[in-house]
Amino acid sequence: MKLVGRSSPFGGETRTRVLLALALLGESYPRELSRLLGKPLNGIQQAIRSLEKDGLIGGRSMGRTRLFRLEPRYFAARELEAYLKRLADPDDDLRDRVATLRRRPRRTGKPLTL
Amino acid sequence: MSLTKRSSISDVAGVVSEALERAGIRTVLSGGACASIHSQGAYQSVDIDFIVQSAATRPAIERTLAPEGFHRRGDQYFHDLAPYYIEFPPGPVAIGSDYSIAPIVQKVGAYHIRMLSATDSCRDRLAAAFHWRDAAALRAAVEIALRNDVNFQTIKKWSESERSLDKYEAFLEEVEKSKRRRRARGRTR
Question: What residues of chain A lie within 8 A of the CB of B92, using their CB?
Answer without folding.
Answer: 75
